[in-house]
Amino acid sequence: MNHHVTRALCVLCLVSVSAIAGPLEPPQGPVRSTMKPLDALEPRIALNDLMGDEGATVLVTAPGQYYLRGDLVGEPGKHGIRIVAGGDVRIDLNGFSLTGVPGSLNGIDMTRPAGAGASSLRVRCADGSCRSTISGWGGDGVRTENVIYCECTHLAVDNNRGNGITHLHGESIIHRDIATRSNDGHGVCVVTPPDLAPTQRVDHNWVGQKSRNNGRAGLHVTASKKGYDHYQARSDLSRNGEGGIVIVEDATLPDGLGVSQIALNDVSCSANTGDGVLISIPCASPTTITFEEVRCVDNTGDGLEIDAYGTAMPHFGSACAIRDCHFSSNGENGVRSENPLHTESTVCSENALYGARVSGGDESTQMLCGMTTHLISNGGGGALCGPGRFAGVALSVSDYGGPGIEVRGGCLLLTDSSVTNNQAQGVLVDGTLNVVSSNFRRNRGSGGECINGQCVMEDAVSEFNGTEPETDAGFLFTDVSSVIMRRCVARENAGDGVRASSGVGPIRWMSPEMLSARNTRNGISLSNCAGAVLERCVTSGNTGIGMFLDASCTDGRIERCTSTNDGGGGIWVTGAGHLVLGCQATENAQGAFFFGADVIAAPQITGQQIVSNRNADANIVY
What we know:
This protein is mainly β and about 625 residues long. It contains two helices and 61 strands.
């Protein structure tokens, strides 16, 4: 009995499950979606089917999605597509073209109606394998005004009589894969809103922009002083009539947060009439600028110009970081900046004027830090700096028409750098010069020259410099207040190996362990030095005197120094109050030592007397 009941219950369960699951065999025919298409949710409207008015071939009066289903040709005196709706408008040009005729107005024109809320415009070619073309219009290809958000994608905007694209007073702009070419005005022209709230910002993104052969700038931005973020990547803005990229702040507006961030990555701005990139901002703007893999070549102006204006000190809290960039063969400077710069792995070469020209507001402002940067074959010089504080690490500076590095007021710190083959001085500093582990070779002027400041050098080498022995030297110091040279080498220079003189006051001099050899005049020549200290210095093979302290030098100490084979004499000290101890002079053509009457010198002994000598401070002649 129980066995039959159990079997019946199992059969009932199987029937119930089958009823719940439905039939196991699918119906005949193709599989169809059970969802509605997007056009059913928000139908797209064919622009070709819309009417126009006296001002437009096609008039859009409501937000929504629109598309072209064929080419559209404009009419004289009319816009191609005029949008008078607020809200969100999306246009898919669908691979077709929007072509103007002589006397036509803008290709696409949208102005947010008065009193309307937030509005946005998206213009694209949905087929990303090609660009839709907007060309031949009597005004701009695309023009928006007071449209909060604008996005343009996969468009070619060419040969328009105005700008390729104009955005007036939009807060957020995105361009992706946009080509603006051969327009009479700017490729793209942007004016940011002048009346943003203090907390609002303007955000622009340009990716894959190609802006070439336009009559004015490739991209021109006039920014308000309320905060502006500009990001540009994988773009080419070349062969334009008024520069590649121009970003300026509107000087007529009241101060605000200012231009805040400008970032360029993988951008080429070349062969433009004018500057490759021009950024003009007020001195007081707290601006951060970053360039990475930017190439500015063959422009008639500067490769990069950062211009500061206003009465405040330049750019408190501002900086420009340049990394892996190339500024070459420009008609003026490779880089010209009134903004502090930090360069790394960057080349400035074959520019008509200077590789880098950087100036600050006063001598105390940190204006330039260059690392692994190459300044090569520029017409005016490698770097012209000042006033301000400048630093170079692992620089290569060579083959210039003028000085390798010139600083006009301020300070230069040079470390692990090479300055060679320049047509004037290797380094010329009117101010303070600090050099560590650097070399100056084959410059036509002096290797390193410092005027009107102080100098500290350590492990510096100056070789084969100079063409005028009367004026040039390996190291030349004029009217400086103090010099310290540790373990430095001056060798085979035309003129003195080291020369120091002052007409404004005595020089405090210290040179431990210095070598000066085979120079065409004196090895070391000092004038108007008070309390000079020369310790363990060596001169050898110089045409003139090995070490010469003239009568204007006083109270010095020359200790444990050596002069060998110097043609004009070994160690000559003529001023008063000097102390000469433990020095050696050998095989000098015009005598070993010459001391003035007021010089205190240890006894002189000959080489034969060394064995019996008991005076460690004796000066030795042999």
